[in-house]
Amino acid sequence: MDVLLGAQWGDEGKGKVVDVIAPRYEVIARFQGGPNAGHTLLFEGHKHVLHTIPSGVFREGTVNLVGNGVVVDPVIFLKEVKSLEAAGVDVRAVLMISRRAHLILPTHRALDAASEADKGKQKIGSTLKGIGPTYMDKTGRNGLRVGDLERADLKDRYAALVRKHERLLSLYDQPGAAKESEEEWLDAVQQLRAFRTVDCEHYLDQALRAGKRVLAEGAQGTLLDIDFGTYPFVTSSSTISAGACTGLGVAPNRIGSVTGIFKAYCTRVGSGPFPTELEDATGEVIRKAGSEFGSTTGRPRRCGWLDLPALRYAVMVNGITELAMMKADVLNGMGTIQLCTHYRIGGATVDRMPYDITSGVEPVYMDMPGWSSASSDGDLPVELQRYIDTIENAVGVPITLVSLGPDRTETILRHAERVL
Ligand code: GDP
Ligand code: IMO
Ligand code: MG
After folding, report:
1. Reported pTM
2. How many whole angstroms from 200 Cα to the centroid of ligand 2?
3. Ligand 2 and 127: CB distance under 6 A
4. Which residue has its alpha carbon closest to ligand 1 atom 13?
């Protein structure tokens, strides 16, 4: 099983790359996250944004699996299914959901909003999709799972969990905050019963034994990981390669390549530290050129230069074997590009990610000449080639894919001897 994941703060372009390489796989499996994700695919003039459904869904012949590590909001899921069906995709035929995946309830969403409001200025800037409270109930051993839809006492289990949530919502002075969403949710749950569910650990075991190729698709990114991200400004799941094992029930020794997706620069949406952030006109230029507005929430993304200590960290904790560099076209015509090679912390120059980057971390930059124009039609400009070489040397991993536009076709594969 190969793994593909975000090496930065999410929105690196994972959806595009999964769509590009999906024809090489029989199964595409999402291993964590939920509708906080927004994975964008663009081909034949149409743009599709996927939240819960894996990004192989448009490629004929692939099975798309929502793994046990994913949290599913039935309402959002059904909306996604309907929009795919409207686009001519027979989703029901190619999609399976793990019985062990947890369900997001309307009260989880209400708790997410109440918790964020309570934090005030310290808020995480969550997507308000109920992700944190749902994973809290999973680890707190209170959650409802997709497999519970088969139980006769589902309604009672639901009512018991809602009662607990109502007690918490009362503490936030928000009792009944989810009441009006309840009916729609219960209706969506009924409809969810019609989808194929599976014990994904057994399904994948058999698929791998039969020699099928499986790609595990991550959501969010390494720096949003619950353990290794910029805590507490993170999401609530394991976004790293180890999360593909727990999120699908596949053992570590079955992992083949690990592809890290990163942008030629950095972005972050929501709160939290971002050492190379550009809060100036240059940041604005990147935001505009890269259309850096959230695929899920529409919020403007914060933009900054590429951070090599952070990328090296992502390579280390994930065991990244190859990298895909996205959105190099966005830096077309930038003049000078700055590349953060080190951090200066308390007078010392360090090249590794420290425990805390909240304050006192100053990026050390190397100036690099920019390129006027790069596209997938011609050879890469020498300046971009040099930028790529510098990154490869600094992190010790080959960049096997360079993306120069949002469309499926605007992609260059490098290092032909490698798998990707
Ligand atoms: P994901 O969450 O990692 O799948 O990424 P998103 O879909 O949230 O954000 C990536 C955005 O960049 C989407 O709007 C893509 O269409 C777009 N995109 C992906 N690759 C490229 C690229 O190489 N160049 C440009 N200009 N846009 C890209
Ligand atoms: P994809 O898969 C970028 C961010 C939120 C917030 C933090 C916690 O499209 O890359 P949460 O709702 O998970 O509790 O929010 O994580 N975040 C993302 N940022 N891309 C994503 O997903 C994200 N999913 C969550 O903005 O800062
Ligand atoms: Mg996204």
Report:
1. 0.97
2. 25
3. yes
4. 40
Q: Which ligand is nearest to the CA of 264?
A: 1
Q: What is the pLDDT of residues 313-335, one digit of tens each?
A: 999 999 999 999 999 999 999 99
The shares of helix, strand and coil residues in the chain, as percent rounded to the nearest 5, are 35, 20, 40
Q: E strand or H helix at 54, and its extent?
A: none
Transcribe 140-190 into DSSP letters.
TT---BGGGGGSTTHHHHHHHHHHHHHHHHHHTT-TTTTGGGHHHHHHHHH
Q: At what angle do helices 382-395 and 308-318 cross, to 10 degrees?
A: 50
Query: Which atom belonging to ligand 2 lies closest to the Cα atom of 299?
Result: 26
> How far is ligand 2, taken at its centre, from the CA of residue 41, in Å?
18
Please work out whether the CB of residue 5 comes within 6 Å of at least one atom of ligand 2.
Answer: no
Query: How far does residue 145's CA lie from ligand 1's centre (Å)?
Result: 31
Q: Give 362's strand partners.
A: 344
Residues 229 and 6: beta-carbon distance below 8 Å: no
Atom 27 of ligand 1: nearest residue by CA position? 406
pLDDT digits (tens, 9 = 90+) for 107-129: 999 999 999 999 999 999 999 99
Phi first, then psi, for residue 27 (nearest 5°) are -130, 135
The Cα–Cα gap between 303 and 212 comes to 39
What amino acid positions are annotated as catalytic residues?
11, 39
Q: Are 114 and 167 in contact (CB under 8 A)?
A: no
Indicate which ligand has the atom closest to the C-alpha of 260.
Answer: 1
Give Cα separations from 130 to 104, 106, 110, 151 (angstroms): 7, 8, 7, 24
Residues forming beta bridges with residue 323, ordered by sequence position:
260, 399
Q: Which numbered atom of ligand 2 lies nearest the CA of 221?
A: 10
Residues with CB under 5 A from ligand 3 (ion): 11, 38, 295
Q: How far is CA 201 from CA 73, 103, 206, 214, in A?
A: 21, 18, 9, 12
- Confirm or reject: Cβ of 144 under 6 Å from ligand 2: no
- Distance (angstroms) between ligand 3 centre and the Cα of 34 equals 11
- Give the model's pLDDT for residue 294: 83
Q: Distance between CA 155 and CA 144 in Å, rounded?
A: 11
How confident is the model over 326-355, as a mean pLDDT?
96
Spacing of C-alpha 250 from chain mean position: 19
Amino acid sitting at position 292: E
Identify whether the C-beta of residue 328 lies closer than 8 Å to the C-beta of residue 414: no
The token pair that represents 420 in the structure block: 């990707």
Say if CB 251 and CB 216 are below 8 A apart. Answer: no
